[in-house]
UniProtKB/TrEMBL annotation:
Binding sites annotated in the UniProt record for substrate: 102, 176, 223-227, 334-338
The protein's name in its UniProt record: Glycine--tRNA ligase
EC number(s) on file: 6.1.1.14
PANTHER family registered for this protein in UniProt: DNA POLYMERASE SUBUNIT GAMMA-2, MITOCHONDRIAL, GLYCYL-TRNA SYNTHETASE/DNA POLYMERASE SUBUNIT GAMMA-2
Catalyses which reaction(s): tRNA(Gly) + glycine + ATP = glycyl-tRNA(Gly) + AMP + diphosphate
Main location: cytoplasm
Cellular component aspect of the GO annotation: cytoplasm; extracellular exosome; microvesicle
Taxonomic lineage: Bacteria, Candidatus Berkelbacteria
Length: 470
């Protein structure tokens, strides 16, 4: 299983690089571990994903407003939130090679491969282990690692503000977007006329000095989150009610945009896993090729954050509930997701290699992305580079672009080859201008998934594509 799974991951990484979805960062300088750059198609796919999220959870709802807070905040924010004190991983350092690993990951690998039993020096390696797993068990200087006692390591990236570099100028890159919403709770309630229950939504970069990043864009040190802080009346019953509601809405977002339900699982955290702020968290896990792993989550943060900010700032964060005349600090339910992980899951789920029974060659790849997510919606081909076909194709493109439809022009190679190039990047429709188009004012539109072709009047194309929900 491990071999097939790694194989699929490798194929997706290769497709992403070759077709301009995701490149290794700083490649011309030899790369930069676990950092990635999104190329022309990847940046568009990611933008489409974020736009659909924003539309659904902010624009189309009366009870949620959006915001965009600073990445570097006053360090007191992170003292109050508990990130300076508690946002740590226990690390073990090898006294011989000085490499550091997460202690829990070393234990997990040992348990997974049962390597403690009769392990001779250097003989822990088992087939199916990834390079990262091997590295955790065997020291580069030979034999086993000689680990020192575990120490806690803070995951926040530090930086300095201004010219001096000391503790008075230390600041942090945010490890979650959430706090930007908590510290603006009063601003939002005072400026937006929102009434509890209501939420604040935000999409933005977060940074964590992860010890063991990996699995392509799944775990990186710089990533994007899409989060909602949903404020409710302060009772565990209310919190649980909204927790259930948000878990369903969150999962729906993935299934509505194409992820197969059978590839998603909801897993409740046990007590030992809960973050320092949580009274209950469930993860939505996706069946990635490298195993079932967290894609998104919903947490009950109770009044932890607002209470902490009240204490640390000295500014009362209470809300006045006009309906029942009470003043209180609300409870918070937090649906959160990683945008990069979501994009990876959408790519993995969409990746389809033909078995040769659908009219394609065996092994040909179709990326069955939801049309709303696909970076290009319509590829436009002139059948030949003559008799006005390229000119008509460009006129059609100009018209579709005016309607906000992302198009791509391709005149090289056979039509079959052009279809294959678009299938591989997930373009839902290809449109061919042929010898008859100028006369019958029509073109042939081919559907990526059904491979059916239809003759459509040029004047009706915009309406046709809008109805296709692109
Ligand atoms: N505000 C709550 C919070 O940050 P989290 O579970 O630590 O909770 C939320 O992170 C989401 O962010 C995760 O479900 C995951 O999708 C994404 N995420 C977390 N760490 C990540 C990393 N190192 N690389 C990519 N995505 C990450």
């Amino acid at each position: 299983m491990a071999e097939n799974s790694n194989n699929k991951t490798e194929k997706i990484i290769s497709l992403c690089k070759r077709r301009g979805f995701v490149y290794p960062a700083s490649e011309i300088y030899g790369g930069f571990a676990n950092a990635f750059d999104y190329g022309p198609l990847g940046s568009q796919l990611k933008l489409n994903l974020k736009n659909e999220w924003w539309k659904r959870f902010v624009v189309e709802r009366d009870d949620i407003v959006g915001m965009d807070s600073a990445i570097i905040q006053n360090p007191k924010v992170w003292e109050a939130s508990g990130h300076i004190g508690s946002f740590t991983d226990p690390l073990v350092e090898c006294k011989k090679c000085h490499k550091r690993f997460r202690e829990d990951h070393v234990q997990e690998i040992k348990a997974k491969f049962n390597t403690d039993a009769n392990a001779e020096t250097g003989s822990r390696i088992k087939s199916g282990m990834t390079d990262g797993e091997k590295e955790m068990l065997v020291c580069a200087s030979g034999g086993e690692h000689d680990f020192a006692e575990a120490k806690n390591f803070n995951l926040m990236f530090k930086t300095f503000i201004g010219v001096t570099e000391d503790s008075t100028s230390t600041a942090y890159l945010r490890p979650e977007t959430a706090q930007g919403m908590f510290i603006n709770f009063l601003n939002v309630t005072q400026s937006s006329r929102v009434k509890i229950p209501f939420g604040i939504g935000q999409i933005g970069k977060a940074f964590r000095n992860e010890i063991t990043p990996g699995n392509f864009t799944f775990r990186t040190r710089e990533f994007e989150q899409a989060e909602i802080e949903y404020f409710v009346e302060p009772s565990l019953d209310e919190s649980k009610k909204w927790f259930t509601y948000w878990l369903a809405r969150w999962k729906e977002f993935f299934t509505d945009f194409g992820i197969r339900d059978e590839n998603l699982t909801i897993r409740a955290h046990d007590k030992s896993e809960l973050s320092h702020y949580s009274a209950g968290t469930s993860d939505i896990e996706y069946d990635f090729p490298f195993g079932m792993s967290e894609l998104a989550g919903v947490a009950q943060r109770t009044k932890f954050d607002l209470e902490q900010h009240s204490k640390h700032s000295g500014i009362d964060q209470k809300y006045f509930d006009e309906v029942n005349g009470k003043k209180y600090i609300p409870y918070v339910v937090e649906p959160t997701m990683g945008v990069d992980r979501a994009m990876l899951a959408f790519l993995v789920d969409a990746y389809d290699e033909s078995d040769g029974k659908d009219g394609r060659e065996i092994g040909e790849v179709t990326l069955r992305l939801h049309p709303k997510l696909a970076p290009i919606k319509v590829a436009v081909f002139p059948l030949m580079k003559k008799e006005g076909m390229p000119e008509l194709a460009h006129d059609i493109i100009a018209d579709l672009r005016q309607a906000g439809i992302a198009t791509f022009y391709d005149e090289s190679g056979s039509i079959g080859r052009r279809y294959r190039r678009q299938d591989e990047i997930g373009t839902p429709f290809c449109l061919t201008v042929d010898f008859d188009s100028a006369k019958d004012k029509s073109v042939t539109v081919r559907d990526r998934d059904t491979m059916k072709q239809e003759r459509i009047k040029i004047a009706e194309l915009k309406k046709y594509f809008v109805e296709k929900n692109i």
